[in-house]
Design a protein that fits this description.
- The longest helix has 19 residues.
- By secondary structure, the protein is α/β, with parallel strands linked by helices.
- It has two domains: 204 residues, Spore Coat Polysaccharide Biosynthesis Protein SpsA, Chain A (Alpha-Beta Complex), CATH 3.90.550; 64 residues.
- An eight-stranded mixed sheet has the order 3-2-1-4-10-5-11-8, with helices on both faces. The protein has a three-stranded antiparallel sheet with strand order 7-6-9.
- The protein contains eleven helices and eleven strands.
- The chain is 44% helix and 16% strand.
- It comes from Niastella koreensis.
- Keywords: Glycosyltransferase, Transferase.
- InterPro entries: Glyco_trans_2-like, Nucleotide-diphossugar_trans.
- This is Glycosyltransferase 2-like domain-containing protein.
- Belongs to the glycosyltransferase 2 family.
Length: 297
């Protein structure tokens, strides 16, 4: 067995100052990674210079183009798994661990469960294979157990992956570029028999910190127009993932919900409704035409 226990990577794109803050919080953990790798998705800012100045011990690789989270994650996972590390922190440049002992608690949980633990994290959801929707655990369930089993842990939730699953061939799909690449990875792990666990105390702490002890359901809420491009990737990639994993009812459900939300979005005005509807049509069209990776939206 390798004596390389724990490493991590962070994917970044043009957020040098935010990245430096995230690295500082990672390296200040009670259990910091033995190796930290920055995967640079083609930044044009001072990321490399700041790393050399402030954190010369951090490994660095530049993709040469913007491969999106899906492409950058694949490189980070593959590199560290092949180097022999047992557990790999899968990080984003703007999502540092929120408490000083986050990594220690998560790695301890992973090791206590055994080799069939595919990953651990702070926040996770359960996946409905008939609707394609994610549901949250109750506060009562979290308070009654030290950890719970979920179906997926989203990006930015201190996701720590069992490297063995990567060596077994489970990795992100680069053509997804952005959106649900983590869900695709997690479904592959579940299909291979791995368990996905979240730490209950950390989960509850996140809910308290983010004021999400209870969440009201909203239908077609209005979003900032600047982030509507995310919906294009979410719809396109969700259709791809449901088909890939043979969740055909979920595929139909996502189609129906997406177009239903498009119609309801007109309650926020003609301009907003038109933007949402255009994104939805483009996503469905590009899925049908197999247009993946980064697209002009």
């Amino acid at each position: 067995m390798s004596n390389k226990k724990f490493a991590g990577f962070v994917v970044t794109f043009n957020r040098a100052e935010i990245l430096m803050d995230t690295i500082q919080k990672i390296m200040s953990q009670t259990l910091p990674p033995e190796k930290l790798l920055v995967v640079d998705n083609g930044t044009t800012d001072e990321t490399k210079q700041k790393l050399e100045e402030l954190y010369p011990e951090v490994a660095y690789i530049k993709m040469g183009y913007n491969a999106g989270p899906a492409g950058g994650d694949k490189v980070g996972l593959e590199m560290l798994a092949k180097e022999g590390y047992q557990w790999i922190f899968w990080g984003d440049d703007n999502d540092p661990p929120p408490t000083p002992d986050t990594f220690e608690k998560l790695v301890n949980l992973a090791e206590s469960y055994g080799e069939k633990c595919g990953q651990v994290g702070m926040v996770g959801s359960r996946f409905n294979k008939f609707t394609g929707l994610l549901s949250r655990a109750t506060n009562e369930e979290l308070r009654s157990r030290s950890y719970i089993e979920v179906d997926t842990i989203g990006g930015g939730q201190c996701k720590i992956v069992n490297a063995k699953s990567v060596l077994d061939g489970i990795n992100t799909e680069p053509k997804l570029f952005f959106g649900f690449e983590d869900l695709d990875f997690d479904l592959l792990q579940k299909e291979a028999g791995y368990k996905i666990l979240v730490h209950s105390d950390l989960f509850l702490g996140c809910r308290e910190r983010w004021n999400r002890m209870s969440v009201e359901s909203t239908v077609a809420r209005k979003k900032d127009e600047k982030v509507l491009w995310r919906d294009y990737y979410s719809i396109r990639n969700a259709l791809f993932i449901m088909k890939k994993h043979r969740h055909y009812l979920a595929f139909l459900s996502i189609l129906a919900v997406s177009f239903g939300k498009s119609l309801l979005s007109f309650k926020h005005g003609m301009r907003y409704g038109s933007l949402v509807t255009r994104n939805t049509w483009k996503a469905v069209r590009d899925y049908g035409l197999k247009r993946y990776y980064k697209q002009a939206i």
